[in-house]
Amino acid sequence: MGIIQIKEAALEKLKRAPKAAVYIAAAAIIAAALMIIKPPKEAEVEKVSLPAQENRFSAESYAEELEKKLTEAVSKINGVGEVKIMLTVEGTEEKVYAADTSESDGRSESETVIIGTKEALLKSQKYPEVRGVLVVCSGGGKPAIKEKVVNAVATVLDIPTAKVYVTDGK
């Protein structure tokens, strides 16, 4: 027996029943039909697979990458010779995904926004915070060179100059 036949049989019986029963039965039939056509929202939601762990990097690899770039930049400052940089960071990479928030009956529900082939929409990405920098370089004992290196490192990393220590190397 198909949905149309069930509907017709139910409507025929409803025509003979009292009005209150008619409304209740009609509501039940409509609800059942809607559930068959469109399952509840919970059944629609697919599990989101966020980017794989392999796409993330560690705080150590982040610090190493910054050290390489800073070493290259600082070594080009006039008066600076060989450079070795050590960087300390705190925390880990944090990705914030866009969420679609809806409110109903005073409740707020939030779902991650999915684009394309089940990828979460990245809203922002926060990197580990730089806690301090040690720069060992030839020429780092001279006040003028030291000041140039401290200001360059502090500017590039957007940290206070007090977190940058420059010393002369061998």
Task: Summarize it.
With 170 residues, the protein is α+β, with helices and mostly antiparallel strands. Helix content is 40%, strand content 28%.
Domain count, please report it. 2
Q: pLDDT under 50 segments (min length 5)?
A: 40-56
Number of helices: 5
Number of strands: 9
According to CATH, the homologous superfamily of the largest domain is ANL, C-terminal domain
Strand ordering within the main sheet? 1-8-9
Strand content: 25-35%
Rg over alpha carbons: 32 Å
Query: Major beta sheet, specifics?
Result: 3 strands, mixed
What is the topological layout?
Blueprint: H1 3-16, H2 19-37, H3 41-44, H4 59-74, E1 83-90, E2 94-97, E3 99-104, E4 107-112, E5 114-115, E6 119-120, E7 122-126, E8 129-137, H5 143-157, E9 164-168
Parallel strand pairs: 8-9
Antiparallel strand pairs: 1-8, 2-7, 3-4, 5-6
Helix pairs in contact: 1-2
Describe this structure in words.
By secondary structure, the chain is an alpha+beta fold. It has two domains: 3-44; 53-168, 2-Layer Sandwich (GMP Synthetase, Chain A, domain 3), CATH 3.30.300. The protein is 40% helix and 28% strand. It is built from five helices and nine strands; from the N terminus they run H-H-H-H-E-E-E-E-E-E-E-E-H-E. The protein has helices at 3-16, 19-37, 41-44, 59-74, 143-157, and strands spanning 83-90, 94-97, 99-104, 107-112, 114-115, 119-120, 122-126, 129-137, 164-168. The strands form four sheets. The protein has a three-stranded mixed sheet, covered by helices on one side. Helix 1 runs antiparallel to helix 2. The radius of gyration is 32 Å and the shape is rod-shaped. The protein starts with a helix and ends with a strand. Mean pLDDT is 75; it is low at 40-56.
